[in-house]
Amino acid sequence: MLPESCLSQSAADKAEELQDPSRASALRCSILPSAAALAFQTDSFHGFLQAVPRNGFPRRRRSRRAWAGKKSERFKVSGPSTIQTLRGELCGRKVALILCGEAHEDALDLTRKGSIIAAKMGWVPLDPLELPRAVDVAAAALHHRGTLKSARTWAEQALARLASGAEAGMDFSGSLLVFCESHNPKDRGNAWLFPPGTLRYVQKAGQDKSTCYFVWDDLDEDARWVRQRKVQGLRVHPSEHDAIVTRRKQGRLEENVELFDDWLLRHASDPRVQLILEGPVLETEVELHEEPGVEPAPLSHRTLQRMELDSCDEEEPEDDGQTRRFCGEDGTGTFLEFLRRRVLQHLDPRRIRFMDPRELGDPDDEELRIRFQSLLQKPMPRDLEEQKADELGLAATKRPMKQWVKQALGSPTVPSWEAFFGASSELLYYSPHIRGDFVPFLACVLKPPEAKRRQGVLLEFFQHLYCGKVSDAFAMLRQDGGARSCLRVRSALHLRPDQKSYKRRQDVRRLIPVHCAPVDRFLKARNSDPPRTWISDLAEQVKKGGAEDVVRAAQSWYLRSVEAFLSNPKAQDVEGDYFVAWLRECHREIHDDIDTSDPALLRSRDRVPSLSNPTKYHNLRGIHIPGFEDAMAEIVSFDPDAGKPTTKRQRVLAKIIIDVFQLRMVDLAAILLVSDRVLQARIGTEVVVILYAGSDHASAVESFFRERGFRGDHLPRAGRVGKDYWYPDEPRGLQLPSYLHDFGDLFSWCNTLASAVPGSFTSCPASGDERTASPARTRQRRGSYTSSVELWLESVTRDRVGSEPLGPWGH
Question: What's the domain of life for this entry (predicted)?
């Protein structure tokens, strides 16, 4: 036991210690000799705590909650699904990573009432003038007699019964309710319900004024207006969209919820903060390179010309005015786009970097696309296939086209390798009705392997392209005439089955901006010599900054993660998009008879009910996507000399393989940009890097830096806020802990007793494989206060080992 003289203090000494830190330090030093001896004689922290009376040392008042601050004092934050905070040391800097993962929601959805993204449906009054003719009530699916109020309730319940019955999985938005008032006040009115697809008209001159019309639609007026504008082919200008969102945010503030952009701009005033967003790379980072002595690609191979027409061309007549030419949106509605515009408007561009080069040269943003056009020093040569179509007098099918699409098609595309391979995501996720084929490039353009596996050749090609010099990647491509005719993923000419006449395919440059491998000219990193792609030059810059080991580890991780992903695409793709694409192309009868609205859930199901027959189930357990080796074997089996086009199975496999390389390339860019942002600070300083991207990208970055020793220990809930999956009817506001309101807390945690005293329990794993702990245990390890015992023992250990104590920043 310690002498009582060392443990007793007068009330005046205690008060003076709490008010004067220097006095407190002196009081602790006065008991160091005997206490230090006891600490190391007990050889354990638990023994020390049992030996020393707790009331002998004044302590700070302990907070009841690790989430500091009352709920009413701080806003919840809506935007990201999860926020993972990691801390560690990189290149001599103390780094805090705040990784925000989102589910690519629309800004309008995040600003709905209660921050609930699910649309609240109801009966919206419809102007009779919007109907072309009088409604044929005899064709109504259901009839009801009653008042207008009871009719609306009845119709809503009827749709609910249909949705849970034989019509399960059907979208009932757009259903029409017709109510006709009775001329006799004592009689009840008549109501007729028309689900989608059942509405019929009669030849009648006018509408009865006593008849009311209601459509089952979103009750959010702003969301309806934006959707109607897009359906009409009118682009919603970003300034209009942002003004609507700004107005809606005021209503959410009254609910104690703020949008993530307000939280970010408020904390970005901290000079330690660096920002990385998932968004298109700016034109200031690249320049156009022309390869000397290389001619543009020739006409496409006949196998590409014989590929079937797009789905809309095959299944709908050419003179149908209702045929939609494009299914994609204009890119102005997502919260990521809104956030990108906000930070560029209010923050210093030198503190912001964008990590997605998959649309390099042709982004969705109209202003950025115009700035990319300034990189063209001279007009781009016209495509040879377009010239051939004009010579043959082939006219494109006349279809309704949105005005903003017409304007975009008037400007040439600035080619890049990133955008060429980036078309795979557009074809898989957003425009599966558009035909595109990477099989000829993979099977005929890449040089055949000598002693390597075929997938090894593809890995080496992308390693040179994204981690080395473009010239080394070009050296792996065949240059003969037959191979050069396979450089395209889509031909502008369609060779009819009789093989005697051609038809001009529709122009889809807005969906596939670079439809030919850019071997003659492409965007390279600015001032890179020899030419390098943007991400390859980024790695070189990080190497020069002193993080060569991080670059080597990241590039090695890139190739390993691609190969691991492609070994079992169905299991690795937790979002399920690849599995739905595989069903569409290879099991169309099942795809069209099941509900595919939730790909993530569908991928994990063994069997799913049929939409056409509720008593029937489709077995999905036995449906698998071939692994990397088997998929490449199917792809290289393609023989262009056979005169047959590739199969849908081969095409979807090639798209999945290319898209995985592109997906992990974005993750590699994020990892390198984190290192780049850290290197902007001086050695020994503190850096806060905020990354906002899709959840899959944020998880990949987290996985890599955990391997590098970063961890979330000593933070509430191990530094994690939110969850991976949210139901549509759940409020999206996140209650943030204190360290996300004051970044100083990220660097001011006390050194732990276990790191200071040899032989005590381990509070921080040295590796990135962090144990999962309950919130209570995490708060206990982290500590919401610093007692005098801890400060005293820290000073004891420092004197003992002759160096600074180990803490959460060291190993």
Answer: Eukaryota
| 321 shares its domain with 193 | no
Total domains in the chain come to: 3
Weakest mean pLDDT among 53-57, 207-211, 496-500: 53-57
**Phi-psi category of 91—alpha, beta or left, where left has phi over 0 and alpha has psi -120 to 50?**
left
* pTM confidence score: 0.81
760 in any annotated domain:
yes
Sign of CA dihedral 776, 779, 784, 788: positive
Cβ–Cβ under 8 Å, residues 606 and 624 = no
pLDDT tens sequence across 711-738 = 998 899 999 999 998 998 999 999 999 9
Q: Would 677 be classed as within a structural domain?
A: no
- Round to whole Å and give the CA distance between 774 and 749: 19
C-alpha 353/C-alpha 673 separation (Å) is: 7
Q: Which structural domain range is residue 22 located in?
A: 1-58+751-769+784-811
Residue 31 inside a domain? The answer is yes
CB 128 within 8 A of CB 121: no
Rg (Cα) of the chain, in Å, rounded? 32
Q: How confident is the model at residue 507 (pLDDT cuts 50, 70, 90)?
A: confident
DSSP labels, 380-410: PPPPHHHHHHHHTTPPPP-----HHHHHHHT
**Whether the bond into 530 is cis, omega within 30 of 0:** yes
Whether residue 210 sits in one domain with residue 315: no
Say yes or no to pLDDT of 434 above 80.
Answer: yes
Domain endpoint, select from 219, 251, 267:
219
